[in-house]
Amino acid sequence: QVQLVESGGGLVQAGGSLKLSCATSVPIFTVASMDWYRQAPGKQREFVASIAFLGTPNYADSVKGRFTISLDDAKNTAYLQMNNLNSDDTAVYYCSAEIFVKGGRARDWGQGTQVTVSS
Question: Hey, which end of the chain has fewer CB within 10 Å, N or C?
Fold first, then answer.
């Protein structure tokens, strides 16, 4: 099991930026992928972005061109830089790690960090 600790959430005005961090308890290159999901009030959790070590990032259409996912293997940390935020981005953001387990893969989750965008 991988322990994930998120930070960086908060309140920001529309058009502003925030950078979320997710520290992992294992070397990040041992993880299959690091992902960000979010869940808005009354909605299902949705995919935001993912990246594998030395891999190409993937983004949800709703955040392409505004969000950037990255890894720092020296710090075992994943980041989500969020620019040009709008009210639709208000949600609890969860860091997730897809890990290798015997017979396949499993997923661990962080505790979530609240992002609130005011208009």
Answer: C
CA distance 39 to 27: 27
3-class DSSP state for residue 88? Answer: helix
- Residue showing tokens 């994930």: 4
DSSP one-letter code for 87:
G
Q: 3-class SS at 89? A: helix
The angle formed by the CA atoms of residues 75, 97 and 69, to the nearest 5 degrees, is 60
The per-residue pLDDT of the chain, averaged, comes to 96
User: Which residue reads 């720092």 in tokens?
Assistant: 72
- Using CA atoms, how far apart are residues 95 and 49, in angstroms rounded to an integer? 10
Q: Are strands 10-13 and 113-118 parallel, antiparallel or unpaired?
A: parallel
Of the pLDDT bands very low, low, confident and very high (cuts 50, 70, 90), residue 116 is very high
Distances in Å between the Cα of 4 and the Cα atoms of 23, 65, 98, 112 are: 6, 26, 11, 9
